């Protein structure tokens, strides 16, 4: 399967990805995670992306298109993949079409994580992540067994620099202006399935698995 997850910041894309990944043995390509790793490692890509990310703006299309084009070559991505946070502009969607055409493959489903903006601040400000695995927790909705510590590795959890109420405003603005048109782009192709992302995580998981098995 080749799946795209689209949704506002905090809608649950990163939370549902491991479930889809395990169920279908797919590779999980999250441009946000890859960019954060590049920023932490201070690579040339990270240096270019840092400022926009901290302001809650999108980084340039060329940067993210390059990362995805490279990642699609990985052996682990040949059976299928989950794109989490890409494409987020119509230009990125068009470039993705070219990358897929060149490889003779197609997207099977685009999952639209529908959620009201008002719910997102609490989700974003309560999130704690385990940076090396990308696992995320929430102080109220998905607490780790020990506060501040990853359940599996015992390593410390951190908060993302852009997970503040103020930066969330810019991220939401970017979502509505630049990413919502991407949902229309795929609706015209007839591959979009809308999920109610406001439900508890397990219920969202059942919806996701139902849509993907149909
Ligand atoms: P990115 O990392 O993609 O951030 P985002 O889109 O803002 O999405 P989030 O990771 O915040 O949300 P999520 O849906 O994964 O939520 P999660 O499941 O963790 O991008 C970051 C930045 O990188 C961008 O701002 C941009 O600068 C840059 N970038 C990335 N891709 C780009 C691209 N293609 N083009 C240009 N720039 C790009 O859930 C959130 C919290 O809620 C967690 O604590 C979780 O435990 C909890 N939760 C999840 N589901 C539920 C539920 N059902 N009920 C209750 N709580 C829940
Ligand atoms: Zn995410």
Automatic annotation (TrEMBL):
It holds the Pfam family ADK_lid. InterPro entries: Adenyl_kin_sub, Adenylat/UMP-CMP_kin, Adenylat_kinase_CS, Adenylate_kinase_lid-dom, P-loop_NTPase. It catalyses: AMP + ATP = 2 ADP. One of its GO terms (molecular function) is AMP kinase activity. Its EC number is 2.7.4.3. Keywords: Kinase, Nucleotide-binding, Transferase. Residues 127-162 form the Adenylate kinase active site lid domain. Belongs to the adenylate kinase family. NCBIfam families: adk, PRK00279.1-2, PRK00279.1-3. Catalyzes the reversible transfer of the terminal phosphate group between ATP and AMP. Plays an important role in cellular energy homeostasis and in adenine nucleotide metabolism. Monomer. This is adenylate kinase. It comes from Kalanchoe fedtschenkoi (Lavender scallops).
